[in-house]
Amino acid sequence: MSQVETLSFATETRQLLKLMIHSLYSNREIFLRELVSNASDALDKLRFEGYSDAALMDGGGELGIEIECDPEAHTVTVRDNGIGMSREEVIANIGTIAHSGTAEFLQTQQAGQTQDARLIGQFGVGFYSAFIVADTVTLTTRRAGRPDEEGVRWQSAGEGEYSIETVSAPRGTQIVLHLRDDAHEFADAWRLKSIIRTYSDHITFPVRMPAAKPVADEGEPEAADIDATPAWDTVNQATALWARPRTEITQDEYDAFYKQLSYDMQAPLAQLHSRVEGSHEYTALLFVPAAEPFDLWDRDRRHGVRLYVKRVFIMDDAAHLLPTYLRFVRGVIDADDLPLNVSREILQGSKVVDSIRAGCTRRILGLLEDMARDDADKYQRFWGLFGRVLKEGVVEDHANRDRIAGLLRFATTREATPTVSLADYVARMKDGQKAIYYITADSVAAAAASPHLEALRARGVEVLLLGDRIDEWLVGSLPAFDGKPLQSAAQADLNLDELGPAETELPPVADADWQPTLSALQTALKDTVESVRLSDRLTESPVCLVAGKEGLSGNLERLLKSAGQ
Ligand code: ADP
Ligand code: MG
Question: Matching PANTHER family, A to Z (predicted)?
Fold first, then answer.
């Protein structure tokens, strides 16, 4: 047996552990969901790697998760016969190296927004939730394919350090939680069962617990005798929900599945579940969340759709399954026509994946169209959460551009909140009005205050107020909607005549009177502006800057400048 080595946690990990131990009092039972979800991931990985290397699956019996507790010793044990970890992996995954989500999780907690443990899984730091209830955690693991003697025992009291030593161990991972004095309640089989049913019912592997009363006579249970123990009950459903017929699934089951998959606390806003037959067959169970995922704007974010092939988990951040502008969608796609040993590289060029992506994209757009038509309030919630992301679709997805354009909502000179669709706008265009007018600025408020609007306001013409960064690209990619061109109110050649006379009386202008002033201004500003003209577009402001016919709009110029162009 090798000697015990002691190593230190990364600083951020230490802060995280401190937080776990001292501040997370609500929903402490979440630790079990996190450990079960890690066990399930480890089983998924083993099954997946087992397709290219069958020897990895040798021994260990049926793939599954076992949970035991000992009320006298105050321990809870979670065990899986999955992929396991090598010594290097233990150190990298749960030791020294800080995870990318650690800082973000600390931020949300320290900002005092929530002291709620339920969020934890979203941030990729779920393992540490063990320390919410345990004052010592002992993890024993052995990587599949390595000899028994290359097992690793990791132990920590969740303070600055952990110890690590080489031991003999069966394949997979066993975690023993030595419960804190105030967490002894969790060493109770009934309690554990009910937690599993609440949070882990839809894990696709069986989660088993001893059938009779938990035996507490021999102390810590042996990791080796997965098969030897006589009676185990499976306590979760252990089926792939998406593979069941829709009619047999209740909304509660869908919601629970979504929460388990996304680590979200709320039920989703909407879902679609379809079995697609035809040239490529697949099942999609996709959800639109009711809250913004923390990494929506993070370039290194994980993707929200898990890929399965015939019920076998393949990967969980399959970037190619949906376009980027639908990155808020969570769910599962189970394809029948992909090989089980599919790699990311194969996915990238795959016709099957292209067809799945196109099909799922159309279905999600359809789902959003239905929501917009049938439940305007819900659609407003959706738009508030993900509207800015969906706008990217107008720029990126030419095939679906018109459908996405139909889903856009804007604030306008008539509606302060972003509730106006382009169809609404077109329906109330003035007689003689040919274009959809918009104005871009740093914010909707700044857009609303723009002097460029005065002439259009004076003629009773509605103008879209665009204040998001993406909007400039959006209007650049959307030349027209419903045959009506989009036209910037800041462009020089507004054809105001066709819009009829201004409703507000404008002071008469005699060009000749102004000529000396104009030439003086022109000379003074010759390096800055192309020309200085009299305008009939202002009713209140003395002056405004307009873009030339071919020129960039003022706002785009500002954006490019701030991007260093
Ligand atoms: P996440 O699951 O989001 O990656 P966790 O903190 O829950 O974050 O787990 C960290 C990492 O530790 C996992 O990604 C995995 O590599 C490793 N790990 C945790 N539990 C197990 C397990 N039971 N078997 C194998 N590896 C595990
Ligand atoms: Mg995890």
Answer: HEAT SHOCK PROTEIN 90 FAMILY MEMBER (PTHR11528)
User: Rounded to the nearest whole angstrom, what is the distance from the C-alpha of residue 514 to the centroid of ligand 1?
Assistant: 75
144 lines ligand 1 (CB under 6 A): no
551 annotated as belonging to a binding site for a ligand: no
Residue range 190-231, pLDDT digits in tens: 999 999 988 888 788 999 999 865 555 555 555 555 555 568
- Ligand at minimal distance from the CA of 137 is 1
**Which ligand places an atom closest to the C-alpha of 100?**
1
* Mean pLDDT within 426-453: 92
Handedness of CA 329, 335, 339, 341 (dihedral sign): positive
∠405-407-410 over CA atoms, to 5°?
Answer: 85
How many Å lie between the centroid of ligand 1 and the Cα of residue 138?
Answer: 14
Q: Whose CA is nearest to atom 13 of ligand 1?
A: 93
How far, in Å, CA of 115 to CA of 99, rounded? 20
- Two structure tokens written together for 31: 């630790």
Q: C-alpha distances in angstroms, 434 versus 137, 253, 267, 403, 523? A: 70, 50, 44, 21, 36
Provide the pLDDT for residue 61.
83
Q: Output the CA angle 445-447-449, nearest 5 degrees.
A: 75
Regarding beta strands 464-466 and 312-315, do their DSSP bridges make them parallel or antiparallel, or are they unpaired?
unpaired
* Residue 259 token pair: 């929460």
What letter represents residue 134's amino acid? A
Q: Which residues have C-beta under 5 Å from ligand 2, the single-atom ion?
A: 38, 126
- pLDDT per residue as tens digits for the range 250-268: 999 999 999 988 888 899 9
User: Residues 6 or more apart from 172 whose CB is under 8 A from it?
Assistant: 42, 60, 79, 80, 81, 82, 83, 84, 141, 142, 144
Tokens of 252: 């509660």
Q: How far is CA 432 from each of CA 333, 487, 500, rounded to the nearest angstrom?
A: 49, 15, 8
* 82 pocket-lining for ligand 1 (C-beta < 6 Å): yes
Global model pTM greater than 0.90 = no
User: Cβ distance 35 to 78 under 8 Å?
Assistant: yes
Evaluate: CB of 127 within 6 angstroms of ligand 1: yes
Q: Which ligand does the CA of 131 lie closest to?
A: 1
